[in-house]
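Thread: quick sanity check before group meeting

JM: Hey all, I'm pulling together slides for Thursday and realized we never actually wrote out the predicted structure for the chain we discussed last week. Dropping the sequence here so it's in one place. If anyone has concerns about the input, flag it before I start.
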Amino acid sequence: MVGRLAGVHGQTGTGVMGGERSIPPVHQGRRAACAWALGVIFCMASAPAWTQPAATAPLVTVWIMPATPHRDAIQRGLEEGLRRAGVVPGRQVRLAAYEVMGEKTQVAELAARALAEQPRVIVAIGATPADVSRFTSEGLPVVLSVAPEGGADKTAGDAAGKPPRLAWVPDNRAGDGQTELMRALLPEARRVGVIYDSGNPASVAQIKQLQASLPKAAMVLVEAPISRVVDVAAAARNMIERADLLLIIEDPLVKAALPAVARVADAARLPVLADHRAAVYKGAAVAREVDYQEIGVHAGQAVVRALRGASLAGAGAQAARRGTVYVNMEAARRQGVIVPEAVLKQATVVPER
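JM (edit): ok, ran it. Output follows.
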């Protein structure tokens, strides 16, 4: 494994992973940043799976978009998925991770560096097809993990009829599991209010997913776009008469103001649900979080299919079907949510912080 995120040269990074070489002083301050940004799978020198990869083993490049949540869990799952398919990281496959940052020209230079290493497969975490167009234009198979524009498994081939070279592994946060939970908790609810940053591409993409999934459950989306964290509480107050429940998505501006949203909801007895666990500690009544490590597992299995020259059609179709429900009983009581026993049996009850 090489520590490219930290700016460490490939040979230096590999040597450090193998315990043979020290990082030059100019890079020593960057090693910790690499560990923080990529997590233990890609950067910890003590992880034996990444030591001394065979020089002839195929290279898989992991292309990580900035501010992608749950990427550590996805990366752990990627390793697990490779192992489940009989491919041992560091032995039968090499992994190189890049965090995509900077202006377009800088990103283009980073992509050129990645291509120069001749990867066999690209795993893009949090990327759209446009973000990986440089790789697909070179004919490389690309696995998109939690792609913002995913929402469902999709593949793309070419006019020559070659096997699909692009696969989505979606997170399905706005899929059937979420709407089923809403129906179980609030069977009479129809209007789902969502506050989101209209300038955040990931949030906008999730709104599109909700627009597609809610009508299937006879529900409608009530949108409240905002652009500043100070606008969140006012947007929540505006939802009191417009929505039957609030759904908190993993939007940074909304997350920052969640305690204020919870106070508004408590006073109005407006139920607050969420798609991420952290929200229940800050006042949401119930949250359902998908299994991001399992998403990584599906991405790893898709990588193995690509390495073996198989079609990527259908890769990731079953990803993120599983999820864990978290309940804050005190918030549920304040917001008038009666949690059915069937939900409680499968949920984790958490204290409010």
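AS: nice. The domain at 176-290+323-349 is CATH 3.40.50.2300 (Rossmann fold). The mean pLDDT is 79.
JM: adding both to the slides.
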